[in-house]
Amino acid sequence: MSDRKKAVVLLSGGLDSTTCLAMARAEGFEPVCLAVAYGQRHAVELERARRVAESLGVKDFRVVSVDLRQVGGSALTAEIEVPKNRPESELSEGIPVTYVPARNALFLSLALGLAEVVGASDLYIGVNAVDYSGYPDCRPEFIESFERMANLATKAGVEGTRFRVHAPLSGMTKADIIRAGVKLGVDYSMTHSCYDPDPQGRACGRCDSCVLRRRGFEQAGVADPTPYAEGA
Predict the structure, then answer these.
(1) Distance (Å, whole) CA 109 – CA 150
(2) pLDDT, tens digit, for every residue of 36-79?
(3) What residues of the chain score a pLDDT lower than 70?
(4) Helix 140-152 / helix 103-118 crossing angle, nearest 10 deg
(5) Are 34 and 110 in contact (CB under 8 A)?
(6) Measuring CA to CA, which residue among 72, 188, 86, 73 is closest to residue 133?
(7) pTM to 2 decimals?
(8) Which of 46, 81, 115, 230 is the most buried (most CB within 10 A)?
(9) Virtual CA dihedral for 112, 113, 117, 120, nearest 10 degrees?
(10) 128-131, long-range: CB < 8 A, 24+ apart
């Protein structure tokens, strides 16, 4: 049995969360990975998350299902078109329709509940506040406020456990994240970032997430292993 401290890592199968998982392992934690099936149109990411977890030696990988299509309000969960070919200058202006209402608050709450059950006091989330699409729940202020809440609103917190929410990618550019992941041996060909993949799971190459990912590989000087759809 491992004597390493456990940490709950939110794993979407994307570039950021995969790097975050590799960082948690490098920092000595035994990761318990949590993926969320929330009715996302890019559900291919769940299969990628499982593959990533297996490749990084994760022994405890769980999927929780919450159908956010019943809430809607996002291009990822409702019949709203995913924006394509937006100029890079617009990617961090305003909040795009790919924002899923309260998604990270929900994900972290699920991770917090799991942490109580498995005896972990550390949570990892791969949010990024530099190269991102303007989501308010990726900001450091949100992470700090959730951590305060976690220590107030849980049995473990009341009884003396000090929860910490780690967002190690917060101040990094996408290129920084990729370079860090490469040093940790991350195989980015397993990851998926596209919001609107084709039926074969190939990236569209034109949504905000694809644009940021492609630019990150270019700036990092690392070959982009992403399988793109024809015409992308």
Answers:
(1) 8
(2) 999 999 999 999 999 999 999 999 999 999 999 999 999 999 99
(3) 1-2, 92, 131-133
(4) 40
(5) yes
(6) 86
(7) 0.95
(8) 115
(9) 0
(10) 128/16, 128/169, 128/170, 128/172, 128/174, 128/177, 129/170, 129/171, 130/170, 130/171, 130/172, 130/173, 130/174, 131/173, 131/174, 131/212, 131/215, 131/216
Strand 6-10 and strand 60-65: pairing? unpaired
Question: 222 is written with which tokens?
Answer: 């690392």
Number of residues in the chain: 232
Instruction: Identify the pLDDT of residue 217.
Output: 97
pLDDT at 152: 97
Question: Taking the domain 6-220, which CATH number applies?
Answer: 3.40.50.620
Two tokens at 5? 């401290």
